[in-house]
Amino acid sequence: MTGFLWFFRKWFWIVLAWFKAFANKPLVIPMPMDGSSGADSGAPLLVPVPLSQAIPGLPIDAVLACSADDIPPDERSRSKTGFYKFQVWLYSAYPPMQAGLPSIRPDPDRALSKAYTWLHRTQYGPPTLPAEYLGSPDLGALAVRGPYACYTRRCADGLYEWDLQSLRDFEHHEGLVQLGARVLFEVDATQRVLRAVAIDCALGRCTPGDSGWELAKRLALCSATTHLSLVRHFNWVHLASGAHLAIATRNRLPAAHALMRLLWPYVYATQQSNDTVTRGQMLRGGDFETTFSFNFEGMCQLFDRSYGECNFAMNDPVADARARQVLEQGFDTPTEQNLAALFGVMLDHAREYLALYYPVAAQGRSIEDLQSDTALKAWLDELNRLVPNGVGLRSDALSFEGLARLVASVIYMASAQHELLGSFLWNYQLWTHRQPIRVYANGQPEPMDVYQRLVNANFNLNVRRRALIGDFGYLALDPQGSACLQRFSARLEELQQTMAREPWAVWKLYPRVLKVNINA
Known about the structure:
Elements lengths: L1 H22 L14 H4 L7 E2 H4 L9 E2 L12 H16 L14 H8 L2 H4 L17 H4 L10 E2 L5 E4 L18 E7 L4 E9 L2 E3 L6 H40 L5 H10 L2 H13 L4 H5 L4 H11 L10 H7 L10 H24 L1 H4 L5 H4 L2 H13 L13 H22 L4 H4 L18 H14 L17 H22 L20
């Protein structure tokens, strides 16, 4: 009887996930209109409030968000709002979870084929197994290639680390091993690689050859993928950064401001998307609580505490890698090179575009044209007030290069960073035999409903969205600005062609997969 009930429940939610993917269309980005920003109307349009007020049912006060009533009229989508309300209602009426189900098959290919069905595959192909997961997970390789390279930083005694110990502090579901780990790496200068030499976790300290070493690696990877998805992706990109960038841009930049025209495709529809997706993933019975290790209370505590730890500088991958002291240290850093190449195109674009409208500052003669732009300074002030720990550039310390790097960081956050922390995990997160989404104390794999929900959620992260490579020249104020926006797209395509001449690799982030904003 259990299997019979699960068959219908499973397929109901698969069809729902398929419908979301099938029906989703790339976002149409209109021109910003006079009166659509606070700077045009004379008063801020958007005032964020604690998430507990914006979305009743989420006891999270540190996170600030706009309520559904405050979504700008030009962003509102009745169909998306209605669909997500229906989905949240289903969490209690006909939930995707079913108690008492067996674990998934230990053979990863068979487990995936059962969960990722022919219907899914009509919209999107299956994941590729990374080389680092072909055998026992190679943490040293993952420390420099792929999504988890962002955690690698220098520590004492010439060692490097992943420090995910903060995850130890939050309540998890019954029967799971406590998350939180610190992985230590040493440099193998001969091979120019990192090698994992110790892991501190719920098992104590484990080293290669110990009986608990393989389990310790699973706990480290489970901690890394949990932190990446919940904290870096959703809390820091969606809630702490993307939402407030959109708020400050709408509130402080007039529709005819050059910076508004540049930033508009990266911020449009953020409030509508954040509101609907937050409800679907974070309310009781949502994706986060039922898929990851933390129960509802633990998840809310994690978001409350980690929100204030956001570091916007992570959106400048060159400065971030330098701060983590991973460059030119005797080992290769292929992911840092990949991300630096992407960021370089974005930074060149920001400099070229800003030079059209701030020529005096661009030539280095003075910053008078920056200082005289009251809207720009108001935008910076609001960003630094709303984004936890600020954005690294203050209105009383303006510079042309600082503004260019900030603009490039915004573009990078909305496109590359969001992709790296979200859809990019498709080829990593579904291989739970190597990188579990939960670690059970009795050693069992994930139950069928947990794994199915993980598959469906990752599938819906890969719906069709508006590509970064495209013609956004229609948003420009003048022909010079339009030509600049078109050259940016052409340079991204040139980088794509350069990368395409090299062997494809699962860990590489390619320009053609980047989306122009964080919105569904």
